[in-house]
Design goal:
With about 300 residues, the chain is of the alpha/beta class. The chain has three domains: about 10-90, Winged helix-like DNA-binding domain superfamily/Winged helix DNA-binding domain (Arc Repressor Mutant, subunit A, Orthogonal Bundle); about 95-170 and about 270-295, 3-Layer(aba) Sandwich (D-Maltodextrin-Binding Protein, domain 2), CATH 3.40.190.10; about 170-270, 3-Layer(aba) Sandwich (D-Maltodextrin-Binding Protein, domain 2). The protein is about 40% helix and about 25% strand. It has ten helices and 13 strands. It has helices at about 10-20, 25-30, 35-50, 65-90, 110-120, 135-140, 190-195, 230-235, 245-255, 285-290, and strands at about 55, 60, 95-105, 125-130, 150, 160-175, 190, 200, 220-225, 240-245, 260, 260-265, 270-275. The strands form four sheets. Strands 3, 4, 5, 6, 10, 11 and 13 form a seven-stranded mixed sheet that branches. α1 crosses α2, α1 (about 10-20) packs across α4 (about 65-90) and α2 crosses α3. The longest helix is centred in the first third of the chain and has 29 residues, at about 65-90. The chain is elongated, with a radius of gyration of 26 Å. Residues about 300-305 have low confidence and may be disordered.
Amino acid sequence: MGANSLTLESLEIIDAIDRRGSFVAAAKELGKVPSALSYTIGKLEERLEITLFSRHGRKSVLTPAGKMLLTEGRKLLSARSHLEQEVRRVATGWETRIRIALEAIQDCTPLLRAIKQFTDEHPAIEVHLNEEVMGGTWESLSQDRVDLIVGATHPIPQSQGIRTEPYKRNQAVIAVAASHPLGQFWGKVSRGELSKHRQVIIHDSSIIEVPRSSEMYSENRRFYVGNMAQKIQAQRLGIGFGTLPYEAIKPYLASGEMKILEVEGANNAFDSLIAWKVANQGKGLKRLRELLLSPEASDPQASFSY
């Protein structure tokens, strides 16, 4: 086996042939002539003493050895891409990617408005958005799985290096399908009455930390779901009651499909935060925070009433 028999360029060629199905199509993608690709693959097969591709007419298919090489090789190509992105970020101050976690109880619309403006301004920056729940929201930041969390609630973890800003005052409501037995109640509902019915709850998305829990009204009758969309649908179908963001269920309230329960002693107004690591000085993250906290990100038509 010769020295330097395997290069990133040869891995790129193998990857392109596998994705495109032929040397001709791969050469077109890479801006090369097919004979150049054939020469590179031939020399690599000779030096490694293996066969990478089997030819079936015009189609080239990886052999088992070729598949194994490409699977591991793609890890190297991905690592190179990440390294290039980090180098550009350090050189320019602008990130190539921003990862965001949105607390599940939050309405996503204000955040998406900010992201829309941000991506219009900076189309080359990738934005990744995922949903987290309670303790999992803070954990995703502390474990560096995301760069920014939006809509996190108190308490703030007592770890150094986290900066927060007030985000907005939220209105959540305890709601149920109009067809549910609780939907027949008028006036205030006691906690004792709630405890007789099933409560729909989203799993805390913490992986490492001890999961937090929201206010539990039912001791044994609970239905756990994985995200807010499932929770809303479960409550629409009458599986149980639970706390939901008011903005997310306005259409169902307006149509009469769902109903807000007035629960004795319940206080469903709460403040939320955005948070990030102080060490993250990227210009993209700073600009996204500015947009997110601007008045334009909020819906001036939003209101809350029973």
